[in-house]
Amino acid sequence: QAKMQGGDAVHSFESHIKERVNERITLRNDLAVASENGELDLHYQPLVHAQSGVIEGFEALVRWNHPSMGYIPPPRFTSLAEETGQIMPLGEWVLRRACCDIKAINDRLGTQYRVAVNVSPLQFHRKDFLARLRHVLEETGLPASRLDIELTEGVLVNRTEAAIATLHTLRSMGIGTAIDDFGTGYSSLSYLRDLPISKVKLDRSFLQESDDGSRNAAIVQGVITMAHSLGLQVVAEGVETEAQREDLRTRKCDLLQGYLFARPMPMPALKQFLHGSTAHAV
Ligand code: C2E
Ligand code: MG
Ligand code: MG
Ligand code: MG
After folding, report:
1. What's the CA-to-centroid distance between 20 and ligand 4, angstroms?
2. Structure letter (DSSP) for residue 278
3. Ligand nearest to the CA of residue 98, numbered in listed order
4. pLDDT score of 244
5. Which of 87, 19, 34 is nearest to 65 (CA)?
6. What is the mean pLDDT for each group of 10 consecutive residues in the chain (282 residues)?
7. Three-state secondary structure call for residue 47
């Protein structure tokens, strides 16, 4: 009896693996045509100045609405796209679309909004990354000074000469750089010291109320103080409550992003949102 169950368990484990593999193959094939089929979209989430509530700009977040599987969360297909190399066309699609959308909004409203684009490690480390980036800026007409590139800590962990050179070039072009999910990866304080980065985005896990609340607060305050003394701005991700907003404002966090202000929105909703909030702060 026990043996039978063991066999079943092995069998179901195997079929589970097979399912996962099949799903990945399906997703990989489908991703190849997703942008042509109009299944990809970008949603935009505002970043607001903590003190004034004024909108600084938006983070572009990719969305894939799969024809049969429905909504697929970005980390699931971006990691797959990294493995297959599909991240290159995907990343370029995101970049072009984000620059184009925000340029259009700025032109129409007479604003100077920034746009933050998530760039995957593979994209960033490619030799032609800067050339492609320049090309997209030229094509779309978005001023380089309105763009932020968001990188995860993993990108910088090896701190290669080439990566450092790329960061310096981005800075000289006037493009901002942010370390995303700061505090969750292989954080090393020395790269804040050594690398030309303009923002750190404090991971939202540090905002969570918990038994460790006071410990989180100590980290939040520590990161803000340290970043400011190094000339970096701090963005808090995942701000959901008025209490968090007030706490971060008191601690002199520069920018806030989260459901409290707005969820990521597709372009039509963003236009509506901005129409309702032009002139006055969020
Ligand atoms: P991220 O760059 O750290 O983006 C922030 C994530 O937090 C987004 O999830 C956003 O929807 C979510 N978020 C924002 N405010 C709140 C809040 O108040 N509460 C909570 N619980 N969540 C909030 P999303 O859109 O599912 O994206 C997940 C991750 O996928 C991103 O994390 C980013 O690492 C990656 N990603 C998204 N778009 C792209 C892209 O175009 N390219 C690449 N390479 N990665 C992307
Ligand atoms: Mg991000
Ligand atoms: Mg983030
Ligand atoms: Mg995050």
Report:
1. 25
2. S
3. 1
4. 95
5. 34
6. 61 83 88 92 98 98 95 92 92 97 97 97 94 98 98 82 94 97 80 89 86 80 94 97 95 98 98 76 48
7. strand
Look up the ipTM and state it: 0.98
As a whole number of angstroms, the distance between CA 232 and CA 223 comes to 10
- Residue 277's pLDDT is 67
Residues pairing with 58 in the sheet: 46, 115
Q: What's the full length of the chain, in residues? A: 282
- Residue written as tokens 């968090």? 244
| Closest atom of ligand 1 to CA, residue 75 | 30
The helix (run of H) or strand (run of E) holding residue 17 is: helix 2-34
Q: Strand pairing of 55-66 and 114-118?
A: parallel
Confidence (pLDDT) at 23: 83
Ligand 1 pocket: which residues have CB below 6 Å? 45, 61-62, 73-75, 78, 94, 118, 120, 150, 180-181, 204, 237-240, 257-259, 264
pLDDT at site 280: 47
Give 65's Cβ-side CA count (13 Å radius): 8
- Centre of ligand 1 to C-alpha 214, Å, is 26
Tokens read off for 103: 């340029």
